[in-house]
Design a protein that fits this description.
Elements (H helix, E strand, L loop, with lengths): L8 H23 L12 E8 L6 H20 L7 E8 L5 H13 L3 E5 L9 H8 L3 E3 L3 H8 L9 E3 L5 H5 L1 H10 L10 E7 L2 H16 L3 E8 L8 H9 L4 E4 L4 H11 L7 E4 L6 H7 L7 E4 L10 H14 L4 H20 L5 H9 L2 E4 L2 E4 L17 E6 L2 E6 L17
């Protein structure tokens, strides 16, 4: 694969400063005065949204936008905050391309009316964190928590403006095994092949990290790994060569950590052409509405897990409230969209405490002290990593099963609304 260009902090900061200087100088010449970018009487503050609004992840980008839009509409309809109203400044980053992200970050940081920037995920490495900290810009994100941790934990004080509403991905690498083993102990599935697993991934930081962590965990737990395969990241139209190898030594569990919904839909469709008696786990993708639209009833039986987003249950009042609100506005549910709505509400809580969205340092300090019940669980930040804390009393790792075009929660018991049901292809 070609090496991804990752611009240095000095590059973007110097380039941004140069562009800003040219822009201000041009305005000064044409107007004869250096103008304040926000007129006092306007009191409109912009929220910068970094999102893949076009390209292969456009569906997820639109979900990000919907979540922020719902929150902004709600706050503005209530009269704003301390005389301020809010609007969204969209910055498209197609397919998480580094050069597009650099341009998008520059544009948002150069806009004097943008006082806060957010995303669910917009980069495979989260390198933009460095630039937000350099500019003192309040920035919240959710994806790539291992990358966020790696950047921030060596020197947390360097990143006072950057916070993640998602938790460490460590649980993704370990908790699948005890959940699957518990299903076997309860008689919900059988280990017909002797605790064997086959794993496949695409070569991106998120999927590869979980893929490698799962390999270590399965070996430590005494499982036999029959097959591991790494494919190039991007659109994958044919998984049949992998399934041909799977059938040579059938496993009890098949794991795919590629997160793109189109790929996942093709994966399960081709698996069902000649299925083995294996439980199928797919990372993240089944949580996206697009996956359900593409597969319909065919994906019944697939399992996945999720840390962030929303707890799809009637047992959590905040989740019920937000799900009804989101579905009423947009017609469906999206973990990413709801996550962005709650992320926005955390930001608006900080603005209420500070009173002035342009006081970026005070907003960042208020964000750091967040302790809030959200649709995804309780969000409180680890001050050493700036990640949300993961756990049953904070952000729980939830296990879902696709059932007749719906996502049903079967673990943990605290939130579960359904019991796991043996997939139809495993009935033989």
């Amino acid at each position: 694969m070609n090496k991804i260009w990752r611009p240095t902090v000095s590059y973007i900061v110097s380039r941004r400063g140069l562009l800003a200087g040219i822009t201000v100088a041009t305005l000064a010449i044409s107007l004869g005065v250096f103008a304040n970018p926000v007129k006092a009487q306007d009191k409109v503050s912009k929220i910068g949204l970094l999102a893949p609004l076009t390209g292969g992840l456009a569906g997820e980008g639109q979900n990000m936008l919907r979540g922020v839009q719902l929150a902004v509409e709600e706050v503005n309809a209530a009269g704003g905050i301390n005389g301020w109203t809010f609007e969204i400044e969209e910055a498209d980053v197609p397919d998480q391309a580094s050069d597009a992200l650099v341009s998008a970050v520059e544009r948002l940081l150069d806009d004097g009316n943008v006082n806060y920037i957010c995303t669910a995920y917009v980069s495979s490495t989260n390198f933009e964190i460095e630039y937000m900290a350099e500019a003192g810009m309040p920035y919240m994100l959710a994806g790539g928590t291992q990358q966020t941790k790696d950047i921030i934990s060596p020197n947390p004080d360097k990143f006072p403006s950057v916070w993640s509403t998602n938790a460490s991905y460590d649980a993704y690498e370990t908790e699948l095994i005890p959940v699957v083993e518990a299903l076997a102990e309860a008689g919900a599935i059988s280990f017909n092949y002797g605790k064997k697993v086959a794993l496949i991934s695409s070569d991106n930081v998120y999927s590869k990290g979980i893929f490698e962590g799962l390999q270590r965990s399965f070996l430590a737990a005494g499982w036999t790994i029959t097959l591991t395969e790494m494919l190039p990241f991007g659109e994958i139209n044919d998984w049949r060569a992998f399934f041909a190898k799977v059938r040579q030594d059938p496993p009890d569990l098949i794991v795919n950590t590629d997160y793109l919904p189109n790929n996942a839909a093709t994966f399960i469709t081709q698996f069902l052409e000649d299925p083995t008696n294996s439980l199928v786990f797919i990372q993240y993708a089944p949580s996206v509405p697009e996956f359900l639209e593409l597969t319909g009833d065919k994906s019944t039986g697939v399992i996945y897990n999720l840390i962030f987003g929303f707890v799809n249950t009637t047992k959590h009042a905040r989740s019920v409230e937000v799900m009804e609100k989101y579905k009423g506005r947009w017609g469906d549910l999206s973990a990413t969209g709801i996550s962005m709505y709650e992320m926005s509400m955390i930001y608006f809580d900080a603005v209420r405490k500070v009173g002035d969205p342009t006081d970026k340092a005070a907003i960042s300090e208020a964000l750091s002290k967040t302790d809030k019940d959200t649709a995804g669980g309780r969000i409180k930040f680890d001050q050493n990593t700036h990640l949300a804390i993961q756990g049953a009393d904070y952000l729980p790792l939830q296990f879902y099963q696709i059932r007749d075009g719906n996502q049903v929660l079967f673990y943990p018991d605290k939130y579960a609304t359904h019991e796991f049901v043996r997939p139809p292809w495993m009935m033989k």
